[in-house]
Amino acid sequence: METKMSVRSALIVGGGFTGLTTSIALAQRGVEVTLVDKAPAWARVGHGLTIQGNALRVFKEIGVIDEVLAVGQAENAVTLYFADGRVMAEMPTPRTGGDDLPATIGALRPDLHEILVRKAESLGVEIRLGFELTSFENDGDTATSVLSDGTTESWDVIVVAEGIKSQTRPKLGITEDRRPSGLGIWRAVTSRLPEMTGGIAYPFDDQGAFKVGYTPVSDSQCYIFVLCPPQRPDNGLEGWQEVQRLMANYHGQFDYLRESIGPDTFLNFQEIEWIFVEGPWNRGRVVALGETVHAVPPLIAQGAAQCVEDALLFAEYVTADGDFDTQVAEFHARRIPRVKGVVDSTMLLAKWELDPGAPDADPGRVMGQALAALVPAP
Ligand SMILES: Cc1cc2nc3c(=O)[nH]c(=O)nc-3n(C[C@H](O)[C@H](O)[C@H](O)COP(=O)(O)OP(=O)(O)OC[C@H]3O[C@@H](n4cnc5c(N)ncnc54)[C@H](O)[C@@H]3O)c2cc1C
Q1: Which of 193, 212, 344, 353 is most buried, judging by how many CB atoms fall within 10 Å of its CB?
Q2: What's the CATH class of domain 9-178+274-372?
Q3: Is 191 helix (H, G, I), strand (E, B) or coil?
Q4: pLDDT tens, 119-136?
């Protein structure tokens, strides 16, 4: 029987979590997929991430869960500490991907990325590195891309998965742009002791970091995050010395972590920006997904999860029988409440990071409720 699938060929622009997961999910449904990324080569080093259960649920559905769990460290709770090292509380993390999956895993980004690249390649996705989308045009039931090498090609859909710094976003008629969150973050990959199973520590004063946390990514390694003001002070310190300074008042396990950081530690600082596009994510056959249209500070670690949920659901919609415009409108209407819930609760948490003494500040409750709301499948 002939299928009436509205999408048979796709150009995916961007090879992060969003672009790769969209490519895999479309290819698994019989779509011919080409993925371009402006990076000349995939990065082999990178940061740690906390991947929540609802992202693991997507990884299970696209058939990579065994590989993902093999490179990650599963956690089902988070320990909260006072800055002096005393335990404040042990909080179970909601299993947002269902009871058969860990609540979260810690893993290194390049390890996860490589699993997705391998899966996409095994499904016949053509990956072209060093190519950028320069412009596009809608032509009724197809869209034409012009890439940075000047070539022009026609597709049933072009997916813009360029991340928060997307250049194509305004060309889709989207007027929202990325904005400062008021927060900055240092991240470092370093060593841990076997008994150090992860946690977040809160300060007693307004000196140094807003908070510091770490997540195991292997038997002997973890990644550390240090939340702080968005501008680096002009104090002449090297990056690793600045991280040590920000962590100076954090003790217990954090003494070990601070001392494990040195000139050779892989670390970086960035100002955290955010964006939320509530209106349509597409113009005709060109559709933006993932951090191109929603990105928030990593305060409940839902970034990648929301991206891969977009990707799988989008592929399901546009490969069903039906009319493309209706499918995209229905997809968008279904995604918005869930993504907005994550954005609203995260931005409230960001506000309280900057004003912890606010009379209504109750981050534990908001975090718990935000994650619990994600337990039902999207
Ligand atoms: C400090 C920090 C910590 C975070 N921690 C976590 C965490 O613990 N857990 C979590 O789930 N999420 C976390 N996130 C969020 C997570 O990293 C993102 O949600 C996710 O990586 C976004 O994926 P993406 O594919 O949409 O975009 P990206 O990962 O930004 O990928 C976009 C890709 O598009 C390419 N590209 C851009 N423009 C073009 C173009 N015109 N043509 C071709 N290619 C192009 C880029 O080279 C890039 O490869 C964190 C984010 C930050 C900033």
Answers
A1: 212
A2: alpha beta
A3: strand
A4: 999 999 999 999 999 999
